[in-house]
Amino acid sequence: MKLLVKRLPVPFTVDADWSNPVWREIPAVLIGNYMGEKPGHLPKTEAKIAYEETAICLMFRVEDRYVRAVAEEHQDTVCGDSCVEFFFTPGPDVSKGYFNLEMNCGGTILFHFNSTPRAGIEISEDDCERIVKTHSLPRIVDPEIKESLTWSVACSIPLDLLSKYCPVDRPKRGGLWRANFYKCGDHTSHPHWLTWSPVDYPKPNFHLPESFGLLEFE
User: Fold this and answer.
1) How far apart are CA 98 and CA 115, in angstroms?
2) Degrees to nearest 5, angle at CA 50 with 45 and 52
3) Who has the most CB within 10 Å: 69, 75, 82, 172?
4) For 21-78, what is each residue's pLDDT tens digit?
5) Prediction pTM value
6) In 114-140, which positions are buried (b, 16+ CB within 10 angstroms) versus exposed (e)?
7) Environment class of residue 142 by beta-carbon count within 10 Å: exposed (0-12), middle (13-18) or buried (19+)?
8) With the CA atoms of 151, 135, 204 and 118 taken in that order, what torsion angle do they form, in degrees rounded to the nearest 10?
9) Any idea what the Cα angle at residue 69 is, between residues 201 and 183, rounded to 5°?
10) Domains along the chain?
């Protein structure tokens, strides 16, 4: 899988509005492949990614049901909630490690750097707070919402934050990163594990950087 990543034409003010004019020229990708058995609930999940001089910007939109968010603190296990994730190597060589950024529908994140799969170093609380985050739902969603709804989250990740943990190839025309986008809900009443770039593995496992797709910056 390959995705061309556009540069934002103007500075980006992070909000959770999918129709934000800044994003109109940014194509969406569908997170539509599933891991494990086909889930009974397969929420339509889309993501957009773009860059500016100092940051990588992300937005997700999910047409969902069975939505919950109970993780309260950064670095809690947000994958148990209604959650979207961005795993990425800030360069073309996944052997140099990767970040996993996971955000539930209430905007709580888990953020690690992995030198090898699942060898995670927690990004500090201060650095987590430097990521600008926004979300369309309340921070806590409990009990689970079983009715259909659409939710969105967005964030901006400073590039100099990433460079504290590993070498970073700063985005420029023709530059390459490796990445995958995910959607999960491990502890919802209808769990599922969805990917953008297909992952050939017999059970759900997002920590397989060899399956990351290619991001090429325009």
Assistant:
1) 7
2) 155
3) 82
4) 888 889 999 999 999 999 999 999 999 999 999 999 999 999 999 999 999 999 999 9
5) 0.97
6) beebeebeebeeebbeebbbbbbbeee
7) exposed
8) 180
9) 25
10) 2-217 (2.60.40.1190)
